[in-house]
Amino acid sequence: MPMVRCPADEHYYDPELYDECPYCRKTHYVTQQPAQPTGSKADRQTQRVNPETAKTRVIFGDKGESFEGVEPVVGWLVVLNGKARGSDRRIIPGMNRIGRDRDMTITLDVGDDTISRKEHGFIVYDPLNHQFFIQHGSGQNLTYLNGAVVMGAQPLNDRDRIRVGNTELLFIALCDRTFNWA
């Protein structure tokens, strides 16, 4: 049976393994007509999986090819306060410009006018050394790391707290020396 898209239209999953979307817990609907399975259910060895312990399967397209031009995520910023509380922003390799404008790498248009429009700060991921850094940008308002003002580039560690304007962010690292996309 083909993978299906959940009602929230955000996730794909295998309906033979799950009765509902294991991510948002909504009952599935089929986005394409499923092929009729051959053989008995026992022959296909179909089994239900506990969504809490299941591993995610990566889908690379209809023919198994990888997508080109995709910037892999290396970490996230999670908004901890305000109207956007709980939302996240992806961090990609290289220099990530933070600001309210849509042309910033990390757009923080979260209703906080104390965040500079352009380059309030930068988060850098160095893919050769698998390290993160934070630095102040050209914005007038300050950037804080764990309560201390950021003036030059400083190392950024998993679970560090960042404040831009009146918005507090939690930094979550995906890539490090134990896992990276290299």
Q: How are strands sequenced across the largest beta sheet?
A: 4-3-13-12-9-10
Biggest sheet architecture: 6 strands, antiparallel
Number of helices: 1
**Domain tally:** 2
Number of strands: 13
Using the alpha-carbon principal axes, give the shape: globular
Helix content: under 10%
CATH topology of the largest domain, by name, is: Tumour Suppressor Smad4
CATH architecture classification of the largest domain: Sandwich
- Global Rg: 21 Å
Low-confidence stretches: 28-36, 43-47, 56-67
Quaternary state of the chains: single chain
Order of helices and strands: EEHEEEEEEEEEEE
Q: How much of the sequence is in beta strands?
A: 25-35%
What is the strand and helix layout of this fold?
Elements: E1 4-5, E2 12-13, H1 41-44, E3 75-79, E4 88-91, E5 94-99, E6 106-107, E7 121-126, E8 131-136, E9 143-145, E10 148-149, E11 154-156, E12 161-164, E13 167-173
Parallel strand pairs: 5-6
Antiparallel strand pairs: 1-2, 3-4, 3-13, 5-7, 7-8, 8-11, 9-10, 9-12, 12-13
